Amino acid sequence: MSTLPDGDHGAGPVPARRLRVAVWKFASCDGCQLQLLDAVGRWPALLGRIEFVQFLEASSRVEPGPYDVGIVEGSVSTPQDVVRIREVRRQCRFLLTIGACATSGGIQALRNWGRVEDFVAAVYASPDTIEALATSTGIAEHVPVDFELRGCPVDTAQLADVLVALATGRTPRVPSTSVCAECKAAGVVCVAVTRGIPCLGPVTQAGCGALCPAHGRECFGCFGPAEATNLPALSAHYEATGTPRGRLLPLVRGICGWAPAFRAEAERLADAPGEPAP
Amino acid sequence: MGPPTDTAAPLELGPAGLDRLVCILAETHRVIGPTVADGAVVLREIASAAELPVGWIDEQEGGRYRLHADASAGPFDHVVGPFSLKNFLFPPRETVALLERGAEGWRSRPPEGAPRALAVVGVRGCDLAALAIQDRVFLGSGHVDPAYQARRRDLILVAVDCRRAAPTCFCHSTGSGPAACDAGAGRVADLTLVDLGPGPAGSAAEDLGIEPSAARRFACRAGTLRGAAILGRLRAEGLAGSLAPADSELSAAVPRATAARLAARGPGERHLDTEGLRDLLFDRLDHPRWDDVAARCLACTNCTLVCPTCFCASVTEIPALDAERVERERRWESCFSLDHSRMHGRAVRHSTAARYRQWLTHKLAGWIDQFGVSGCTGCGRCITWCPVGIDLTAEVAALRAPPPASEGGRA
């Protein structure tokens, strides 16, 4: 991660100049931008560190670049997006992408396994007016990204931490361990071991605070693959203990299905339907 | 805690006595006990003996835990669940210091407020053995952890002799059960209970032919002066009385019968051969089994987090937004995470094989050099709560086989 020219490189006093932050939306639901608003609402002191000079979800104010930090939500989904993200990159010293869409293509990357013209024809009255790429992909597949914050949506505390880290020149506290570590820290009993339901927690990056398992549900992989994963071994166990491959495939292909480790497993499962995993 | 005074004869405690015991503990302590929640027997704060998991029995295997209703199950016929004393004495997250910026620079002060003293009901031999190991880590070797020390000093322990062993249990291999006192000298609980009532299939009560019609009764033995005082109070209130000689014999026979069941296990059943294990593991660092287990291991950290002796933690500083105040927090860490091996800016254990090897060789070998004792108490938690059911005992058995001569060293 690069450092910022105006950071004070330590927990020093509030800097005289706040970081100029611009926010852009690509193909997304806006939920991560709402998390950004929520973060500012919960910790108004953030605004002592950063200043939003473009954040259309919050204000019509638009100041020209260049910007200290660009925050991008959403995936690259149209030919225009490809051009626009390059211009965004050019305007930003530090590019932070937030959320499953921006970091791995999002739920809309499900189309990457189908034919986009079929989806367009099924959804739109005049398909010929739609210009869409065949794939939905994360920002880093198009331009260099300085930091990716995962989640669907991103976690407000992690988002605030990253912004403060940028403003003070320290490393963000974003663990790369699995959701299991969060379940165990929170005293949540394992849903996979006690109920045999397929949970992606063991291969998914922490950050949500074990939200779904704490409510008795399996992890859907919203924060993408953990630092170390072994999806074939997990699939093999779930299949051997009664989960049909037909249920595993959509789970792996879900929120972060186009993230490399999940994508590889989805393709492995799809290539050999009915075949037991090695 | 007073010196061990395990000389007093055990007394008989009925259901009312057990409930009163919880109430007496709750007068001064936060009482933690086994109770049913989220499909498992968990350790939580309890207000009365009615919250104990009467009528529930656990089924455990690698990567699998199920609770079944069983009318014959007494309050302690389950075996260990996902939590242990570690969750309370060495909590997953703890503020260890607060740093504040003042006129003269940064000042550190301990966190506010002493938490309420703990009393834990239903601990087993393996739990006591694990506690003794954590004591060595946090209190021994000249580096005393003050928060652990405070919680440990005030801790009251009510132990139970196991009447049943799950297939995942292997305390007979590690010398830490099934009787609470098997954990060894100096690891005595304040009070130890033996359930003298009927028990579920596969329990010592069944082996001993305890009458199904018998009411739930316990033999209760004091192991410390503090325990003797509590037992004396129960006696004064008429809730604890003399134990009939036959029941006294029964209370000794119960853990013996459980131990006999464990000892009678066949070659296909779970046990850990600890003979010469330290030297063997250090001699097998290039064994192909490490790659074999890595092909199954998820590096998800579950085994280390449920292990009652694993003590690794990381310390992070969380600055307030105005940067005038910093909270220093200790969190559980695991040797299965990449960050755990980061030193001088670089991580050194990239492969899962290297991480699993680090865990197993530390737990079963390096621990002996470091703390004079193996880090394994045979509780089986790492087996049950591994999402894919990797079995430490099976991995050790495989590592005992000499590596194929043609294989050479691991790349």
Largest sheet of chain A: 5 strands, parallel
Secondary-structure element order of chain B, N to C: EHEEEEHEEEHHEHEHEHEHHHHEEEEHHH
Strands of chain B, total number: 16
Radius of gyration of chain B: 23 Å
Structure report:
The complex is a heterodimer of chains A (278) and B (411). Chain A is an alpha/beta fold. Chain A has two domains: 19-168, 3-Layer(aba) Sandwich (Rossmann fold); 179-271, no CATH class. Chain A is built from eleven helices and five strands. Chain A has helices at 31-42, 79-91, 99-104, 116-123, 156-168, 179-186, 191-195, 211-214, 231-240, 245-252, 260-271; strands at 19-25, 50-54, 67-73, 92-98, 147-149. Chain A has a five-stranded parallel beta sheet. In chain A, helix 2 (79-91) links the parallel strand 3 and strand 4. Chain A is globular, with a radius of gyration of 20 Å. Chain A starts with 18 loop residues before the first strand and ends in a 7-residue tail after the last helix. By secondary structure, chain B is an alpha+beta fold. Chain B folds into two domains: 11-263, no CATH class; 277-400, no CATH class. Chain B is built from 14 helices and 16 strands. Chain B has helices at residues 15-28, 86-89, 125-138, 146-154, 171-174, 204-207, 225-236, 245-263, 277-282, 289-294, 302-306, 352-371, 381-384, 392-400, and strands at 11-13, 30-37, 40-45, 56-61, 64-69, 93-102, 105-109, 118-123, 156-160, 191-195, 218-222, 240-242, 313-319, 325-332, 342-343, 346-347. In chain B, the strands form four sheets. In chain B, strands 3-2-8-9-10-11-1-12 form an eight-stranded mixed beta sheet. In chain B, strands 7-6-14-13 form a four-stranded antiparallel beta sheet, with no helix packed on it. Chain B has a two-stranded antiparallel ribbon with strand order 4-5. In chain B, strand 13 and strand 14 form a beta hairpin. The longest helix of chain B has 20 residues, at 352-371. The termini of chain B are far apart. At the A-B interface, helix 5, helix 6, helix 7 and helix 9 of A face strand 5, helix 11, strand 13 and strand 14 of B.
